[in-house]
Amino acid sequence: MTRIMLRSICMAIAVLVPAAASAQDLPSKPIRLIVPFPPGGPNDIIARVVGQKMSELLKQQVVIDNRAGAGGALGTDVVAKAAPDGTTIAITSAGALAISIGLQEKLPYDTLKHLKPITLVAKVPELLVAATSLPANNLNEMIALARAKPGTLNYASSGPGSMPHLAGELLKAAAKIDIVHVPYKGAAPAVNDLLGQQVQMAFFDLPVLLPQVQAGKLKPIVVGSRERAPSLKDVPTTAELGYPQVEADNWYGMVAPIATPPAIVARLHQVTVEALRDPGVREKLSSQGLTLVGDTPEQFTAYIRSEIEKWGKVGKAAGLIAN
Q: What is the rounded CA–CA span in Å between residue 62 and residue 55?
């Protein structure tokens, strides 16, 4: 065998070996995609749409596993303690990854020590709505009413320390108003009482409120974001109305166990971003008021750090820090 032939064979092997290794990055068994909230909410909807496309791209089953509890911490902890082989991952929320840090006495995991950020999947603004009986049709009228009757208006949330709660606290501080927080165990019962006039207003993820707003059952007051929501173009933002500090974008990101090998992280990132760029996925989720992202693991890690710092300051100012 000539040297030229040997060199050619070696070059061929060098090309084939990385390809073979890449094909083995993910085990062939089904991937469990944890959703740390009940079926039907924004987190669940995102995971099902993205997970289905990932399954098509990977040509292996992606199974949704709803593990609700403790504001998303229960399901997120399942991933933190899972085998780091890429077969147990989660799409989880700002609350579970950032807000809860410092607002609870003890979490079963440390976000940046026990979890590997893969990508920021989607962002969604918080929308402030009012019950139809509230004599205020815009933010200025609502603030004027609250100042005229301090301590009499109330706002609902999905629980203490949740994004809707902290959005309300941001508004209270920025507008210098006294409104009463009424916590619920989830968005659904809070919205039901809002519709029944038992509470007067609330911030929630836009997809949660959009059907009721479109049906005229709730009054849209303001979007807690820098930009208007495409699905509610006539509703102004807090920034437009002079309250840029009232920025409450909820978000959902994909994470894996911290010890997941870099090659597996890269593969999961690649397929997730490809899924987020799919026109069908974008159409389904954008119509829900979601903005799809798909950044790098490094960018997502930096974003989580900034969110932990931001909401920690809000929690401290509102007297919500538990430890």
A: 5
Sign of the alpha-carbon dihedral angle for 323, 126, 43, 55: negative
Its pTM stands at 0.83
Beta bridge partners, 249, equal 125
CATH number for region 26-124+250-317: 3.40.190.150
Is residue 4 within 8 Å of residue 45, measured between CB atoms?
no
Q: What is the CATH code for 125-232?
A: 3.40.190.10
Domain boundaries defined on the chain: 26-124+250-317, 125-232
pLDDT per position as a tens digit, 115-161: 999 999 999 999 999 999 999 999 999 999 999 999 999 999 988 87
For residue 132, the SS3 value is coil
Contact 6, 245 (CB under 8 A): no
Give the closest residue to 70 by CA, choosing from 40, 112, 99. 99
